[in-house]
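User: Teach me something about this protein's shape.
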Amino acid sequence: GLVRFRIQHISDPFNETQPLYRTGIAVGDYPIDHHHRKNPEAPQHLGFYPIPSFSVPLGALIPAQAHGLVVAEKAISVSNVVNGTTRLQPCVLLIGQAAGTLAALATKRKDLQAALVPVRTVQRALLTSGAYLMPYADVTPAHPHFMAIQRIGATGMLRGKGQPNAWANRTWFYPDSTIATGQFLSAIPPALLGIKERDQADPNALLTIEGSLRWLYLLRQRAASFSKNNIPQWDVAKISELAQANWKGWQLNDFSLQRPITRSELAVLLDSLLDPFSNYPVNHQGVIQL
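Assistant: First, the predicted structure itself:
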């Protein structure tokens, strides 16, 4: 496939050199289960290798050589080890939904090339259908900010915490938790925010609503320099004014600048006033295309 989904992408998605989680189009939570003990000659160290829940990358559904073909079921591009988890029916059903969505979008192109359909276009269509891109167990489609959290999660600007647990692997977003400034900044690639600005921040201080607005201003400035989309240049006062005016409409409460912001509030703020999901497109390897 355009990518090969490996155990490293699942076990430590945010530190892997290929950030394939940014291209997620389906999710799974089953353990690595190969029934390998039935074959004494097979490697025995992989039994229930600890993994969190995971996102299946779009590129695993697209053959690298054959054109006019989208694959699904057990034919997707994964390692032998990863096949031990992606083979389960819930994951397979979601992969099928993604494959059908990709195929439908490809037919709208004159060249009919699935590989040329933008990753974000496929993800956006799936989200509209109520599908998961990121496997957050504590943010269901019933959550008022489900789509914003899914989009921001797919950018990597806010990251979940994986929890391997035998038959019930999970990844948590912790929507109501606060976040330290350093933790927030560590997830933002250097190309999107200057080092000088980072060095002036107290990494241990909890990020406040006011602090979030200042970082949003700097992120918008940098995004305007490379994004193909038209990003108006707003100062901090304008961004604060817009946030306050829309806070209740975003189904958020208590717009107090000095209080720590929650992770779900930060996701909504980033999604609404920066829109990195649209302004930071990614390729099938999950690399941001500047």
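Now, about its shape. The radius of gyration is 20 Å. DSSP finds eleven helices and four strands in the chain. If you'd like, I can walk through any region in more detail.
User: That's plenty for now, thanks!
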